[in-house]
Design goal:
single chain; alpha/beta; 5-stranded mixed beta sheet; 12 helices; globular; binds zinc ion
Amino acid sequence: MTNRGPILAIDIGGTKLAAGVAEPGGRLINWAQVPTPHELDGEKICLALEALLVQVLKAAKVDGEAELSGIGCGCGGPMEWPSGRVSPLNIPGWRGFPLRDRLAERFGGSVGPAGAGGAAGAGFPVRVHNDAVCMAAGEHWRGAGRGSRNVLGMVVSTGVGGGLILENQLIDGRSGNAGHIGHVVVDPDDGPICVCGARGCLEAIARGPALTDWAQAEGWRPGQVGVTGKDLSGDAAQGHSVARAAMRRAGRALGIAIASATNLCDLEVVPIGGGLSQAGALIFDPLQEALDAHTGLEFARQVRVVPAALGQHAGLIGAAALIAVAHKYWTGDRPLAAAMEPSG
Ligand SMILES: [Zn+2]
């Protein structure tokens, strides 16, 4: 039996904490956000999050958490999945922070397989997944990927993340990291070193700070501190040649990575969200050119790369999907198939 109560949806990033209450069909009843506290004390960050959650529940007139059908949460990685111990790169106060357990304790939910019995099996489900995975789930459920069975949802912003849906099922992989397209290699010889340590990952070329670093090294606003991807795309739109070249370089890297993913997974649609996707044709034209050049087979040429449709709400709606449409978007508490196989 599915509880058809509302869902508390959460989206945790390095710059803001967002939360909302969603109907089981995915419509947000209300939402709010606050800046992420620059605290090194993880408990204080957690208190700020709890205050935000109490506020949105109250505003949505959810009386008592017992009405909820669950809590879904997207959070910046890396994290241990499905346990929901998070260590977001941009939130240094949380290292191995037991986010899933804490949400369950505070709001009376449960972690672990539904119906498992005991304290862990009582109450509504609480589920935590990577924020880019939630965005992909949101776009597949209610956004640009709606109606398509095979979707790679991508976020291009200070990092490059993604989530993979094949045959209408979110693919998690062994550790919940499937769809991590940011570390697909696109330039192993001449690309920059990535935060992961490898050379030439997509993220090392196409993340916002990598674009501005490259452009500054090539003579765009040399030495200026605090420049953003938005400044760069603004100057590119005005015709600045280095800024345009930086956008072309990022678009090309995205097109190559998407071509590889499409050849591997037979994708139908790739919605792209995040700040850089708002640069429009400056990014999407070189992306499409590279995609065309690297998809030689007829099946792969059918893929469509489109801007994400849900904007800043994709993460919240995807977090709600972890609860509302768990049979598609949450495999975290299924019994491990490997445990049932004979060993040796
Ligand atoms: Zn990498």
